[in-house]
Amino acid sequence: MTDSRDTSIRPIVALCGILAYQGYTMAINGVGAPFIAASFGLGDAGIARLYAWISPAALGALLLLRLADRVGRRRVLLACMAVTPMAALAAAAAAAGRNVVLFAACDIVLYAAIGATVSTAVILLAEALPAERRARGQAYGGLAAAAGVGFCLVLIPILESRGLSWCWLLVVAGGGIVWLPVLRRAVPESRRWMRASETGATHGARLLDVFGARYRARALPIAVCAFMSVVFAWSADAWSYYRVVSAVGLSPGAASLLVLVGGGLGMAGYPLGAKACERFGRVPTVVTSWLLAGVGALSFYWGPPAGTVAPAYWLGASFLWLKLADSAALVGFRSASTELFPTALRATVIGWTVLIGALGVVAAQAGIALLAGPLGGLSRVVGYLAFLSVPSAAVFGWLVEETRGSELAADG
Does the residue 405 lie in any domain? Predict the structure, then answer.
């Protein structure tokens, strides 16, 4: 599949389907946050602590992605697609039994598999497409994942209106096991990886090589940006549904509609980001988009002003702004991250960004848990975190190399 000239539609569609499924599964903790908190009797600080405990799943994702460089993309992708539904069903059973420790343990396995699957699919898309279509491929993947999130948003008010538990979100994810045989036929191994394996490059590469002398100047800025951008962007996205339900007081149906419409229209950020990446470059696209995302997050979490007649419209417009900018930035960041490193280290460096991003999640959740009380609530803290968009954009703009039009390195 993954020669730059091999752009067969079947594997591309299959990879986008995988991203849609994992986008849905990944969204469950965010969309279900107010209901998860209620089922376990947790407040703002408690739910933040629970999610912080789940964040080390990224270490598992890193190890799985190192395997993707070592033994092949396809093997790891299919293995994780088998683990995801089983872990989802186990998490549903733990939540139904009100066992928060077992739920956290199952979620760690679940999110390790999700992280590895999403990252491997992103890499396969990059390795499948020629340089002029690579950013567009990342946009397709982003749109697919966003569609999965949208389905989760549609499903939660349906469950709530029928008096059904949010645990059914996990049960639906458990159904993903049925299309594993289809994926086995639709997703072949990466030809780039196979060539690198034949030369021995994949066996000689090590986990820490991305921070060695040859790639350190590329890896460190990516790592720093992964940390800071996750602290502000992930927090702004992950707590959006919680804010409009718990802090603003919208009903679950109205909140889902607001987030679904804003997120749906915000999906336009993916093709816009792809166009900007190809016309202006990855670096200016990411820099501009992160700054705009910071403004959107501030408006969403610190607005609307007192006395606003229709606060839902303000929040909807702010959320749309945030999602447009965040989606465009994601296309540029993923494109640059996959293009800066050779085949033998491509999954490994993405694994490092997942782990470092998870540390950012832990830092954000710990900060929210510690400061929500003193600063007046979760929304105030997330608003302050949005100011990290400025140093994130500065580091990316000054230290990350432009890769527009470049070919992927085959070995290294």
Answer: no
Say if residues 142 and 121 touch (Cβ distance below 8 Å).
Answer: no
What whole-number distance in Å separates Cα of residue 355 and Cα of residue 149?
Answer: 22
In a domain, 407, yes or no: no
Q: Distance (Å, rounded) from C-alpha 113 to C-alpha 62?
A: 10
Sequence-distant (≥ 6) Cβ neighbours of residue 213 within 8 angstroms = none
Could you write out the DSSP letters of every residue in 200-216?
Answer: THHHH--GGGGGSTTTH
Is 409 within the bounds of a domain? no
Mean pLDDT within 184-191: 88
The residue behind tokens 């190399």 is: 401
Considering only CA atoms, which of 30, 37, 35 is closest in space to residue 100? Answer: 37
Instruction: Give the tokens for residue 181.
Output: 């045989």
What is the length of the chain? 412
Q: Note the pLDDT tens digit of each residue in 17-30.
A: 999 999 999 999 98
DSSP letters of 381-402?
Answer: HHHHHGGGHHHHHHHHHHHSPP
The CATH code of the domain that includes 156 is: 1.20.1250.20
